[in-house]
């Protein structure tokens, strides 16, 4: 899998910047995550397993086209739990099982436009001095909360990430179900700068609340300081 965008987005719909993002992943059996996949999409598998994991990031000035951020949105943290997907056209992407953010206006917008499971939460995310820290209240589907689900530190940069880092970070789209059809939202960004990272404190209830059971520490912990992201129009995936 290449670490650079295989297809350009063409017509630009949305631009933003993802910053200070830790990526944690566990291997899971494909059949354990096949149920949540939208029609026409199956789990993406490498070395006999698929992957699941939470990703926290600072969503910086999202807005339409290249004209900058929307009023009142600014920069806000987002925590998502993602599955890895591939469709019948061979396009690899992710399927979100949850997206938590503290911007109330962003919740109905994501649900209406893309059918995403974005929820409001009192989430606070910092990554100062090489120490990622996710705090606040992340609300589960039944009202459960995680008070401090992640604390870690950042190590040296990976000059040649290779597999499985490319599998985990070179995801060039989003598969989702909206308005009765499965669609693929293409994304484009430069190769992510990646660092090794370590999670000192981690509560797995974020993944469990998303409907996937994992055990033990994550098999992979990476950190990306930031990358500009462009999104194009949705295309059919089923």
UniProtKB/TrEMBL annotation:
Domain of life: Bacteria
InterPro entries xrefs: DUF2071
Biased composition, class Basic and acidic residues, residue ranges: 150-159
Region (Disordered): 140-159
Stored PANTHER family: DUF2071 DOMAIN-CONTAINING PROTEIN, DUF2071 FAMILY PROTEIN
Protein name as catalogued: DUF2071 domain-containing protein
